[in-house]
Amino acid sequence: MDEDEIYLSRILPVVLNRQNQAYLWADADLRVRYASQQAASILGVKELAGLSLSDVAPELLGMEETLKTLARERHLPFLLRHINRDTPGGKTRYFSIALYPSKAEQPDGLVVALKDTTFTSTLLQELTQGRNTLRLMQQQLEEANRFKNLTLTILSQEINGRLEMMLNYVDVYVDQLLAEEDNPDVESVETLTTLRKGIHTLAMSLQQLLSLEQIERGHVTLNKETCDLTALVQHTWKIYLELAQDQFILHKEISPHHAWVCGDPNRLEQVLYNLISNAVKYTPSGEHITVGVESDKSETRLWVENTGIGISSERRESIFHPRFHTGNLDHLLQQGSGLGLFIVQRIVEAHEGRVELTSDGSSFVRFTVYFPTYHPTAEC
Amino acid sequence: MARIIQKKICMLGDFAVGKTSLVRRFVEGRFDDRYLSTIGVKVSRRRVLLPGGQEVHLLIWDLAGSEEFVDVQQNYLLGAAGALLVCDLTRQSTLESLERYARQLDSITPGVPLLILGNKKDLTEARQVSGGNLETMAQRLRTTWFTTSAKTGENVEQAFSDLTARIFAEWGSHHGRR
Questions:
Q1: Where does A3-116 sit in CATH, by number?
Q2: B38 to chain A: which residues are within 8 Å by CB?
Q3: ipTM value for the complex
Q4: Rounded to two decimals, what is the model's pTM?
Q5: How far apart are CA A138 and CA B15, in angstroms?
Q6: Helix (H, G, I), strand (E, B), or coil: what is residue A265?
Q7: pLDDT tens string A324-357
Protein backbone atom coordinates (compact mmCIF):
# COMPACT_ATOMS: atom_id res chain seq x y z
CA MET A 1 0.00 0.00 0.00
CA ASP A 2 1.50 3.34 -1.06
CA GLU A 3 1.32 6.58 0.90
CA ASP A 4 -1.73 7.87 -0.93
CA GLU A 5 -3.68 4.70 -0.27
CA ILE A 6 -2.74 4.76 3.40
CA TYR A 7 -3.89 8.37 3.58
CA LEU A 8 -7.19 7.66 1.85
CA SER A 9 -8.11 4.44 3.59
CA ARG A 10 -6.84 5.10 7.11
CA ILE A 11 -6.07 8.73 7.87
CA LEU A 12 -8.78 10.61 5.96
CA PRO A 13 -11.74 8.72 7.46
CA VAL A 14 -10.40 9.38 10.95
CA VAL A 15 -9.88 13.09 10.17
CA LEU A 16 -13.32 13.48 8.63
CA ASN A 17 -15.13 11.48 11.28
CA ARG A 18 -13.57 13.65 13.95
CA GLN A 19 -15.37 16.65 12.38
CA ASN A 20 -18.73 14.91 12.87
CA GLN A 21 -19.86 16.46 9.59
CA ALA A 22 -21.27 15.21 6.29
CA TYR A 23 -18.21 14.68 4.11
CA LEU A 24 -17.25 12.73 1.02
CA TRP A 25 -13.85 12.31 -0.44
CA ALA A 26 -13.68 11.74 -4.19
CA ASP A 27 -10.56 11.00 -6.18
CA ALA A 28 -9.37 12.84 -9.27
CA ASP A 29 -11.73 10.73 -11.42
CA LEU A 30 -14.61 11.96 -9.26
CA ARG A 31 -15.24 8.53 -7.75
CA VAL A 32 -16.26 8.48 -4.11
CA ARG A 33 -13.63 6.80 -1.96
CA TYR A 34 -14.98 7.62 1.43
CA ALA A 35 -18.24 9.01 2.83
CA SER A 36 -19.33 9.76 6.37
CA GLN A 37 -22.61 8.42 7.73
CA GLN A 38 -24.06 11.92 7.80
CA ALA A 39 -23.31 12.35 4.09
CA ALA A 40 -25.10 9.12 3.26
CA SER A 41 -28.05 10.28 5.31
CA ILE A 42 -28.34 13.64 3.52
CA LEU A 43 -27.99 12.12 0.07
CA GLY A 44 -30.31 9.23 0.88
CA VAL A 45 -27.86 6.62 -0.46
CA LYS A 46 -26.64 3.83 1.85
CA GLU A 47 -23.38 2.87 0.18
CA LEU A 48 -21.60 5.74 -1.50
CA ALA A 49 -18.08 4.39 -1.91
CA GLY A 50 -17.29 3.44 -5.50
CA LEU A 51 -20.04 5.53 -7.05
CA SER A 52 -19.34 8.57 -9.22
CA LEU A 53 -20.09 11.97 -7.76
CA SER A 54 -22.82 12.69 -10.32
CA ASP A 55 -24.50 9.38 -9.43
CA VAL A 56 -24.74 10.27 -5.75
CA ALA A 57 -25.60 13.90 -6.47
CA PRO A 58 -27.17 14.43 -9.91
CA GLU A 59 -26.95 18.15 -9.17
CA LEU A 60 -23.28 17.80 -10.16
CA LEU A 61 -24.05 16.31 -13.56
CA GLY A 62 -22.47 18.26 -16.37
CA MET A 63 -19.90 19.86 -14.07
CA GLU A 64 -17.41 16.99 -14.29
CA GLU A 65 -14.78 18.83 -16.30
CA THR A 66 -14.94 21.82 -13.98
CA LEU A 67 -14.61 19.56 -10.93
CA LYS A 68 -11.72 17.58 -12.40
CA THR A 69 -9.92 20.83 -13.10
CA LEU A 70 -10.65 21.90 -9.54
CA ALA A 71 -9.15 18.66 -8.22
CA ARG A 72 -6.11 18.83 -10.47
CA GLU A 73 -5.30 22.51 -10.41
CA ARG A 74 -6.60 23.16 -6.91
CA HIS A 75 -8.76 26.19 -7.66
CA LEU A 76 -10.99 28.00 -5.22
CA PRO A 77 -13.84 25.96 -3.73
CA PHE A 78 -16.97 25.38 -5.76
CA LEU A 79 -20.34 25.91 -4.08
CA LEU A 80 -23.89 24.87 -4.90
CA ARG A 81 -26.56 26.24 -2.59
CA HIS A 82 -30.24 25.53 -1.91
CA ILE A 83 -30.42 22.11 -3.54
CA ASN A 84 -33.99 20.84 -3.17
CA ARG A 85 -34.87 17.21 -2.47
CA ASP A 86 -38.33 15.81 -1.78
CA THR A 87 -38.59 13.74 1.38
CA PRO A 88 -40.88 10.71 1.65
CA GLY A 89 -43.15 12.82 3.89
CA GLY A 90 -43.79 15.21 1.01
CA LYS A 91 -41.67 18.01 2.45
CA THR A 92 -38.60 19.59 0.91
CA ARG A 93 -35.14 19.10 2.32
CA TYR A 94 -32.53 21.67 1.35
CA PHE A 95 -28.79 21.23 1.42
CA SER A 96 -25.66 22.80 0.03
CA ILE A 97 -22.60 21.19 -1.52
CA ALA A 98 -19.15 22.72 -1.20
CA LEU A 99 -16.28 21.09 -3.09
CA TYR A 100 -12.72 21.78 -1.96
CA PRO A 101 -9.52 20.59 -3.64
CA SER A 102 -7.17 18.46 -1.56
CA LYS A 103 -4.36 20.14 0.30
CA ALA A 104 -1.00 20.40 -1.40
CA GLU A 105 0.54 17.40 0.42
CA GLN A 106 -2.50 15.19 -0.23
CA PRO A 107 -3.30 13.19 -3.41
CA ASP A 108 -5.46 14.89 -6.10
CA GLY A 109 -9.11 14.76 -5.20
CA LEU A 110 -12.03 16.65 -3.75
CA VAL A 111 -13.36 17.00 -0.26
CA VAL A 112 -17.11 17.37 -0.62
CA ALA A 113 -18.83 18.97 2.33
CA LEU A 114 -22.58 18.63 2.56
CA LYS A 115 -24.66 20.80 4.81
CA ASP A 116 -28.34 20.40 5.58
CA THR A 117 -29.74 23.91 5.25
CA THR A 118 -33.42 23.02 5.50
CA PHE A 119 -34.11 25.44 8.35
CA THR A 120 -32.54 28.57 6.80
CA SER A 121 -33.50 27.67 3.23
CA THR A 122 -37.13 27.14 4.26
CA LEU A 123 -37.12 30.60 5.82
CA LEU A 124 -35.59 32.00 2.64
CA GLN A 125 -38.18 30.16 0.55
CA GLU A 126 -41.00 31.64 2.61
CA LEU A 127 -39.49 35.10 2.29
CA THR A 128 -39.08 34.68 -1.46
CA GLN A 129 -42.62 33.36 -1.75
CA GLY A 130 -43.99 36.42 0.07
CA ARG A 131 -41.88 38.81 -1.99
CA ASN A 132 -42.88 37.20 -5.29
CA THR A 133 -46.55 37.23 -4.34
CA LEU A 134 -46.28 40.95 -3.62
CA ARG A 135 -44.48 41.51 -6.92
CA LEU A 136 -47.24 39.69 -8.77
CA MET A 137 -49.86 41.81 -7.03
CA GLN A 138 -47.92 44.95 -7.89
CA GLN A 139 -47.77 43.92 -11.55
CA GLN A 140 -51.51 43.27 -11.55
CA LEU A 141 -52.20 46.67 -9.99
CA GLU A 142 -49.96 48.39 -12.53
CA GLU A 143 -51.80 46.61 -15.31
CA ALA A 144 -55.19 47.64 -13.90
CA ASN A 145 -53.94 51.22 -13.59
CA ARG A 146 -52.69 51.21 -17.16
CA PHE A 147 -56.09 50.02 -18.34
CA LYS A 148 -57.83 52.72 -16.27
CA ASN A 149 -55.60 55.42 -17.78
CA LEU A 150 -56.20 54.17 -21.28
CA THR A 151 -59.97 54.19 -20.76
CA LEU A 152 -59.76 57.67 -19.25
CA THR A 153 -57.77 58.99 -22.20
CA ILE A 154 -60.11 57.52 -24.80
CA LEU A 155 -63.23 58.80 -23.02
CA SER A 156 -61.76 62.25 -22.43
CA GLN A 157 -60.77 62.61 -26.06
CA GLU A 158 -64.22 61.49 -27.17
CA ILE A 159 -65.97 63.98 -24.88
CA ASN A 160 -63.52 66.73 -25.81
CA GLY A 161 -64.30 66.23 -29.49
CA ARG A 162 -68.01 66.59 -28.81
CA LEU A 163 -67.50 69.71 -26.69
CA GLU A 164 -65.52 71.32 -29.49
CA MET A 165 -68.36 70.51 -31.88
CA MET A 166 -70.82 72.18 -29.48
CA LEU A 167 -68.57 75.25 -29.28
CA ASN A 168 -68.56 75.49 -33.07
CA TYR A 169 -72.37 75.27 -33.19
CA VAL A 170 -72.65 78.02 -30.55
CA ASP A 171 -70.20 80.24 -32.46
CA VAL A 172 -72.11 79.79 -35.71
CA TYR A 173 -75.42 80.55 -33.99
CA VAL A 174 -74.02 83.67 -32.25
CA ASP A 175 -72.64 84.89 -35.58
CA GLN A 176 -76.05 84.40 -37.18
CA LEU A 177 -77.77 86.32 -34.40
CA LEU A 178 -75.29 89.19 -34.60
CA ALA A 179 -75.66 89.30 -38.38
CA GLU A 180 -79.26 90.38 -37.97
CA GLU A 181 -78.27 94.05 -37.93
CA ASP A 182 -81.76 95.46 -37.58
CA ASN A 183 -82.79 93.53 -34.54
CA PRO A 184 -80.05 91.38 -32.97
CA ASP A 185 -81.33 89.17 -30.18
CA VAL A 186 -78.97 90.47 -27.48
CA GLU A 187 -80.44 88.34 -24.74
CA SER A 188 -79.86 85.13 -26.69
CA VAL A 189 -76.33 86.20 -27.55
CA GLU A 190 -75.59 86.74 -23.87
CA THR A 191 -77.06 83.36 -22.96
CA LEU A 192 -75.04 81.64 -25.66
CA THR A 193 -71.87 83.44 -24.58
CA THR A 194 -72.40 82.19 -21.02
CA LEU A 195 -73.04 78.70 -22.40
CA ARG A 196 -69.86 78.95 -24.43
CA LYS A 197 -67.84 79.81 -21.34
CA GLY A 198 -69.39 76.89 -19.49
CA ILE A 199 -68.43 74.47 -22.27
CA HIS A 200 -64.91 75.90 -22.35
CA THR A 201 -64.54 75.39 -18.59
CA LEU A 202 -65.81 71.82 -18.94
CA ALA A 203 -63.25 71.19 -21.68
CA MET A 204 -60.57 72.52 -19.35
CA SER A 205 -61.71 70.12 -16.60
CA LEU A 206 -61.29 67.27 -19.05
CA GLN A 207 -57.84 68.55 -19.86
CA GLN A 208 -57.08 68.21 -16.16
CA LEU A 209 -57.92 64.51 -16.26
CA LEU A 210 -55.69 63.94 -19.26
CA SER A 211 -52.86 65.86 -17.59
CA LEU A 212 -53.12 63.72 -14.49
CA GLU A 213 -52.80 60.58 -16.56
CA GLN A 214 -49.70 61.96 -18.27
CA ILE A 215 -48.18 63.12 -14.98
CA GLU A 216 -48.76 59.67 -13.54
CA ARG A 217 -46.86 58.19 -16.47
CA GLY A 218 -44.09 60.67 -15.70
CA HIS A 219 -44.35 62.53 -18.98
CA VAL A 220 -46.33 65.71 -19.73
CA THR A 221 -46.80 65.94 -23.49
CA LEU A 222 -46.20 69.47 -24.81
CA ASN A 223 -46.92 70.82 -28.28
CA LYS A 224 -44.60 73.76 -28.02
CA GLU A 225 -44.75 76.92 -30.06
CA THR A 226 -43.76 80.52 -29.51
CA CYS A 227 -46.58 82.02 -27.42
CA ASP A 228 -47.32 85.52 -26.29
CA LEU A 229 -48.39 85.07 -22.68
CA THR A 230 -49.78 88.63 -22.60
CA ALA A 231 -52.16 87.88 -25.45
CA LEU A 232 -53.09 84.52 -23.97
CA VAL A 233 -53.97 86.01 -20.58
CA GLN A 234 -55.80 88.97 -22.17
CA HIS A 235 -57.85 86.58 -24.22
CA THR A 236 -58.77 84.04 -21.60
CA TRP A 237 -58.73 85.49 -18.10
CA LYS A 238 -62.26 86.82 -18.30
CA ILE A 239 -63.62 83.46 -19.42
CA TYR A 240 -62.75 82.08 -16.03
CA LEU A 241 -63.40 85.17 -13.95
CA GLU A 242 -66.48 86.68 -15.53
CA LEU A 243 -68.87 84.32 -13.79
CA ALA A 244 -67.35 85.49 -10.51
CA GLN A 245 -67.17 89.20 -11.27
CA ASP A 246 -70.13 90.07 -9.03
CA GLN A 247 -68.53 88.24 -6.14
CA PHE A 248 -65.02 89.72 -6.18
CA ILE A 249 -63.22 92.92 -7.12
CA LEU A 250 -61.17 91.95 -10.17
CA HIS A 251 -57.95 93.55 -11.36
CA LYS A 252 -55.58 92.91 -14.20
CA GLU A 253 -51.99 94.08 -14.31
CA ILE A 254 -51.12 92.95 -17.79
CA SER A 255 -48.08 94.51 -19.43
CA PRO A 256 -48.80 96.26 -22.73
CA HIS A 257 -45.74 94.52 -24.19
CA HIS A 258 -45.45 91.01 -25.57
CA ALA A 259 -44.29 88.29 -23.17
CA TRP A 260 -42.82 85.56 -25.37
CA VAL A 261 -42.39 82.06 -24.03
CA CYS A 262 -41.78 78.72 -25.69
CA GLY A 263 -44.72 76.60 -24.58
CA ASP A 264 -47.88 74.70 -25.26
CA PRO A 265 -50.69 77.29 -25.40
CA ASN A 266 -53.28 74.79 -24.14
CA ARG A 267 -51.10 73.88 -21.17
CA LEU A 268 -50.34 77.50 -20.39
CA GLU A 269 -54.05 78.23 -20.42
CA GLN A 270 -54.49 75.28 -18.08
CA VAL A 271 -52.01 76.86 -15.66
CA LEU A 272 -53.98 80.11 -15.72
CA TYR A 273 -57.27 78.24 -15.31
CA ASN A 274 -56.00 76.36 -12.26
CA LEU A 275 -54.53 79.42 -10.58
CA ILE A 276 -57.71 81.43 -11.12
CA SER A 277 -59.96 78.52 -10.05
CA ASN A 278 -57.90 78.20 -6.90
CA ALA A 279 -58.27 81.92 -6.15
CA VAL A 280 -62.02 81.87 -6.83
CA LYS A 281 -62.46 78.83 -4.61
CA TYR A 282 -60.74 80.23 -1.54
CA THR A 283 -61.16 84.01 -1.74
CA PRO A 284 -63.93 85.35 0.50
CA SER A 285 -66.69 87.31 -1.23
CA GLY A 286 -65.95 91.02 -1.68
CA GLU A 287 -62.17 90.55 -1.69
CA HIS A 288 -59.74 91.25 -4.55
CA ILE A 289 -58.40 88.91 -7.22
CA THR A 290 -55.61 90.15 -9.50
CA VAL A 291 -54.16 88.55 -12.61
CA GLY A 292 -50.90 89.89 -13.99
CA VAL A 293 -48.23 89.29 -16.63
CA GLU A 294 -44.89 90.99 -17.17
CA SER A 295 -41.69 90.13 -18.92
CA ASP A 296 -38.08 91.18 -19.15
CA LYS A 297 -35.19 89.82 -21.18
CA SER A 298 -34.63 86.74 -19.10
CA GLU A 299 -37.90 85.94 -17.33
CA THR A 300 -41.60 86.11 -17.93
CA ARG A 301 -43.88 86.17 -14.90
CA LEU A 302 -47.54 85.28 -14.65
CA TRP A 303 -49.27 85.75 -11.31
CA VAL A 304 -52.63 85.41 -9.67
CA GLU A 305 -53.13 86.92 -6.24
CA ASN A 306 -56.02 87.28 -3.87
CA THR A 307 -56.76 89.01 -0.60
CA GLY A 308 -58.84 87.99 2.39
CA ILE A 309 -57.09 84.72 3.11
CA GLY A 310 -53.50 83.58 3.62
CA ILE A 311 -51.46 80.38 3.67
CA SER A 312 -49.43 79.66 6.78
CA SER A 313 -45.74 78.87 6.44
CA GLU A 314 -46.36 75.30 7.68
CA ARG A 315 -48.76 74.57 4.82
CA ARG A 316 -46.62 76.06 2.07
CA GLU A 317 -44.52 72.91 1.63
CA SER A 318 -47.51 70.68 1.11
CA ILE A 319 -49.69 73.02 -0.95
CA PHE A 320 -48.38 71.58 -4.24
CA HIS A 321 -48.74 67.97 -3.18
CA PRO A 322 -51.76 66.07 -4.51
CA ARG A 323 -54.27 65.70 -1.74
CA PHE A 324 -57.53 63.93 -1.81
CA HIS A 325 -58.87 65.54 1.35
CA THR A 326 -60.75 63.01 3.42
CA GLY A 327 -62.07 60.89 0.60
CA ASN A 328 -65.48 62.45 1.34
CA LEU A 329 -67.37 62.86 -1.95
CA ASP A 330 -69.41 65.89 -0.80
CA HIS A 331 -66.24 67.65 0.24
CA LEU A 332 -64.60 66.70 -3.06
CA LEU A 333 -67.50 68.16 -5.04
CA GLN A 334 -67.41 71.41 -3.08
CA GLN A 335 -63.68 71.93 -2.87
CA GLY A 336 -62.41 70.13 -5.96
CA SER A 337 -59.88 67.35 -6.12
CA GLY A 338 -57.00 69.35 -4.65
CA LEU A 339 -54.95 68.51 -7.71
CA GLY A 340 -54.95 71.91 -9.43
CA LEU A 341 -51.73 73.27 -7.95
CA PHE A 342 -50.05 69.89 -8.33
CA ILE A 343 -50.89 69.97 -12.06
CA VAL A 344 -49.73 73.60 -12.32
CA GLN A 345 -46.36 72.75 -10.84
CA ARG A 346 -45.84 69.77 -13.15
CA ILE A 347 -46.83 71.70 -16.29
CA VAL A 348 -44.62 74.64 -15.34
CA GLU A 349 -41.68 72.33 -14.64
CA ALA A 350 -42.20 70.69 -18.03
CA HIS A 351 -41.76 74.20 -19.47
CA GLU A 352 -38.51 74.59 -17.51
CA GLY A 353 -40.17 77.13 -15.25
CA ARG A 354 -40.97 77.35 -11.55
CA VAL A 355 -43.83 78.33 -9.26
CA GLU A 356 -43.47 80.52 -6.17
CA LEU A 357 -45.95 81.07 -3.41
CA THR A 358 -45.96 84.32 -1.41
CA SER A 359 -48.30 84.92 1.51
CA ASP A 360 -48.43 86.90 4.73
CA GLY A 361 -50.16 83.93 6.32
CA SER A 362 -53.50 85.66 6.93
CA SER A 363 -54.75 88.09 4.27
CA PHE A 364 -52.80 87.74 1.04
CA VAL A 365 -51.71 84.95 -1.32
CA ARG A 366 -49.83 85.21 -4.58
CA PHE A 367 -48.82 82.41 -6.93
CA THR A 368 -46.17 83.52 -9.40
CA VAL A 369 -45.12 81.37 -12.33
CA TYR A 370 -41.74 82.07 -13.91
CA PHE A 371 -40.90 81.01 -17.47
CA PRO A 372 -37.73 81.66 -19.44
CA THR A 373 -38.36 84.53 -21.87
CA TYR A 374 -38.06 83.51 -25.48
CA HIS A 375 -37.08 85.55 -28.49
CA PRO A 376 -40.01 85.37 -30.93
CA THR A 377 -37.77 84.75 -33.93
CA ALA A 378 -35.88 81.87 -32.27
CA GLU A 379 -36.96 78.35 -33.11
CA CYS A 380 -39.06 76.95 -30.30
CA MET B 1 -24.14 -3.16 -20.31
CA ALA B 2 -24.33 0.11 -22.21
CA ARG B 3 -24.36 3.14 -19.95
CA ILE B 4 -27.61 5.09 -20.06
CA ILE B 5 -27.20 8.48 -21.66
CA GLN B 6 -28.09 11.35 -19.36
CA LYS B 7 -28.79 14.86 -20.58
CA LYS B 8 -29.17 17.95 -18.51
CA ILE B 9 -31.97 20.37 -19.38
CA CYS B 10 -32.31 23.72 -17.58
CA MET B 11 -35.59 25.54 -17.06
CA LEU B 12 -35.05 29.30 -17.14
CA GLY B 13 -37.47 32.20 -16.79
CA ASP B 14 -38.81 34.82 -14.40
CA PHE B 15 -40.54 33.90 -11.15
CA ALA B 16 -44.08 32.50 -11.31
CA VAL B 17 -44.03 31.73 -15.05
CA GLY B 18 -44.75 28.07 -14.32
CA LYS B 19 -41.36 26.33 -14.63
CA THR B 20 -41.97 24.03 -11.68
CA SER B 21 -45.49 23.24 -12.93
CA LEU B 22 -44.16 22.34 -16.37
CA VAL B 23 -41.59 19.99 -14.84
CA ARG B 24 -44.21 18.44 -12.57
CA ARG B 25 -46.55 17.94 -15.54
CA PHE B 26 -43.77 16.38 -17.63
CA VAL B 27 -42.26 14.18 -14.90
CA GLU B 28 -45.25 13.32 -12.70
CA GLY B 29 -48.14 14.02 -15.10
CA ARG B 30 -49.99 16.22 -12.62
CA PHE B 31 -50.70 19.88 -11.90
CA ASP B 32 -51.04 21.82 -8.67
CA ASP B 33 -52.69 25.25 -8.73
CA ARG B 34 -50.77 26.54 -5.70
CA TYR B 35 -47.82 28.80 -6.39
CA LEU B 36 -44.68 27.74 -4.54
CA SER B 37 -41.53 29.77 -5.24
CA THR B 38 -38.44 27.71 -6.00
CA ILE B 39 -35.16 28.70 -4.43
CA GLY B 40 -31.91 27.19 -5.67
CA VAL B 41 -32.45 24.13 -7.81
CA LYS B 42 -34.50 20.97 -7.94
CA VAL B 43 -33.39 18.18 -10.24
CA SER B 44 -36.03 15.81 -11.61
CA ARG B 45 -35.48 12.85 -13.84
CA ARG B 46 -37.55 11.31 -16.62
CA ARG B 47 -36.74 8.40 -18.85
CA VAL B 48 -37.52 8.85 -22.54
CA LEU B 49 -36.99 6.68 -25.58
CA LEU B 50 -35.46 8.13 -28.69
CA PRO B 51 -36.99 7.17 -32.08
CA GLY B 52 -34.31 4.47 -32.52
CA GLY B 53 -35.20 2.88 -29.18
CA GLN B 54 -32.26 4.34 -27.28
CA GLU B 55 -33.11 4.99 -23.63
CA VAL B 56 -32.21 8.42 -22.37
CA HIS B 57 -32.54 10.00 -18.96
CA LEU B 58 -33.45 13.67 -19.01
CA LEU B 59 -32.33 15.43 -15.87
CA ILE B 60 -34.41 18.55 -15.64
CA TRP B 61 -33.06 21.43 -13.60
CA ASP B 62 -35.80 23.59 -12.26
CA LEU B 63 -33.98 26.80 -11.38
CA ALA B 64 -35.17 29.66 -9.18
CA GLY B 65 -36.63 32.49 -11.23
CA SER B 66 -36.34 35.28 -8.68
CA GLU B 67 -33.69 37.84 -9.49
CA GLU B 68 -32.06 37.32 -6.08
CA PHE B 69 -30.82 33.92 -7.30
CA VAL B 70 -29.34 34.99 -10.64
CA ASP B 71 -25.78 34.75 -9.31
CA VAL B 72 -26.49 31.33 -7.82
CA GLN B 73 -27.64 30.10 -11.22
CA GLN B 74 -24.28 30.51 -12.92
CA ASN B 75 -22.81 27.30 -11.46
CA TYR B 76 -26.01 25.38 -12.08
CA LEU B 77 -25.92 26.09 -15.81
CA LEU B 78 -22.59 24.27 -16.28
CA GLY B 79 -22.89 21.27 -18.53
CA ALA B 80 -26.45 21.98 -19.71
CA ALA B 81 -27.28 20.11 -22.91
CA GLY B 82 -30.30 22.29 -23.62
CA ALA B 83 -32.67 24.79 -22.06
CA LEU B 84 -36.31 25.75 -22.03
CA LEU B 85 -36.80 29.50 -21.72
CA VAL B 86 -40.23 29.95 -20.17
CA CYS B 87 -42.40 33.07 -20.17
CA ASP B 88 -45.90 33.68 -18.87
CA LEU B 89 -48.33 34.53 -21.68
CA THR B 90 -50.24 36.79 -19.29
CA ARG B 91 -47.18 38.92 -18.37
CA GLN B 92 -45.45 40.69 -21.24
CA SER B 93 -42.38 41.56 -19.15
CA THR B 94 -41.55 37.87 -18.70
CA LEU B 95 -41.05 37.53 -22.46
CA GLU B 96 -38.64 40.44 -22.53
CA SER B 97 -36.52 38.80 -19.82
CA LEU B 98 -35.81 35.76 -21.99
CA GLU B 99 -33.05 37.52 -23.87
CA ARG B 100 -31.17 37.99 -20.59
CA TYR B 101 -31.49 34.28 -19.73
CA ALA B 102 -30.32 33.30 -23.23
CA ARG B 103 -27.26 35.53 -22.83
CA GLN B 104 -26.53 34.06 -19.40
CA LEU B 105 -26.80 30.53 -20.78
CA ASP B 106 -24.66 31.36 -23.79
CA SER B 107 -21.91 32.75 -21.56
CA ILE B 108 -21.68 29.44 -19.65
CA THR B 109 -22.52 26.83 -22.30
CA PRO B 110 -22.35 28.46 -25.73
CA GLY B 111 -24.44 27.14 -28.58
CA VAL B 112 -26.67 24.70 -26.69
CA PRO B 113 -30.15 24.17 -28.15
CA LEU B 114 -32.94 26.15 -26.54
CA LEU B 115 -36.66 26.58 -27.00
CA ILE B 116 -39.07 29.31 -25.97
CA LEU B 117 -42.22 28.26 -24.11
CA GLY B 118 -45.13 30.65 -23.66
CA ASN B 119 -46.86 29.06 -20.68
CA LYS B 120 -50.35 29.48 -19.14
CA LYS B 121 -52.04 29.11 -22.52
CA ASP B 122 -55.24 28.17 -20.71
CA LEU B 123 -55.61 31.73 -19.32
CA THR B 124 -56.92 33.06 -22.63
CA GLU B 125 -58.73 36.11 -21.19
CA ALA B 126 -55.61 37.51 -19.56
CA ARG B 127 -53.23 36.81 -22.43
CA GLN B 128 -50.81 39.64 -23.28
CA VAL B 129 -48.17 37.86 -25.36
CA SER B 130 -49.11 37.09 -28.96
CA GLY B 131 -47.71 34.50 -31.33
CA GLY B 132 -46.10 37.41 -33.17
CA ASN B 133 -44.31 38.51 -29.98
CA LEU B 134 -43.02 34.96 -29.46
CA GLU B 135 -41.93 34.69 -33.07
CA THR B 136 -39.98 37.96 -32.85
CA MET B 137 -38.18 36.77 -29.73
CA ALA B 138 -37.58 33.34 -31.28
CA GLN B 139 -35.99 34.92 -34.35
CA ARG B 140 -33.81 37.07 -32.12
CA LEU B 141 -32.64 33.98 -30.22
CA ARG B 142 -32.49 31.85 -33.40
CA THR B 143 -34.88 29.21 -32.18
CA THR B 144 -38.56 28.35 -32.21
CA TRP B 145 -41.43 28.49 -29.73
CA PHE B 146 -44.38 26.60 -28.28
CA THR B 147 -47.37 27.80 -26.31
CA THR B 148 -47.98 25.43 -23.41
CA SER B 149 -50.30 24.86 -20.50
CA ALA B 150 -48.94 23.02 -17.48
CA LYS B 151 -52.54 22.95 -16.23
CA THR B 152 -54.05 21.10 -19.19
CA GLY B 153 -50.79 19.53 -20.35
CA GLU B 154 -51.16 21.02 -23.81
CA ASN B 155 -47.90 20.91 -25.80
CA VAL B 156 -45.78 20.02 -22.74
CA GLU B 157 -44.70 16.61 -24.09
CA GLN B 158 -44.15 18.08 -27.54
CA ALA B 159 -41.94 20.85 -26.20
CA PHE B 160 -39.69 18.46 -24.26
CA SER B 161 -39.60 16.05 -27.22
CA ASP B 162 -38.65 18.82 -29.60
CA LEU B 163 -35.83 19.99 -27.33
CA THR B 164 -34.60 16.41 -26.83
CA ALA B 165 -34.53 15.90 -30.60
CA ARG B 166 -32.53 19.11 -31.01
CA ILE B 167 -30.09 18.06 -28.29
CA PHE B 168 -29.48 14.71 -29.95
CA ALA B 169 -29.25 16.24 -33.42
CA GLU B 170 -26.53 18.51 -32.04
CA TRP B 171 -24.90 15.65 -30.15
CA GLY B 172 -25.06 13.39 -33.24
CA SER B 173 -23.47 16.02 -35.43
CA HIS B 174 -20.56 16.37 -32.97
CA HIS B 175 -20.11 12.58 -32.74
CA GLY B 176 -20.37 12.27 -36.51
CA ARG B 177 -17.49 14.65 -36.96
CA ARG B 178 -15.19 12.62 -34.75
A1: 3.30.450.20
A2: 84
A3: 0.86
A4: 0.69
A5: 14
A6: helix
A7: 444 444 554 455 556 889 889 999 999 999 999 9
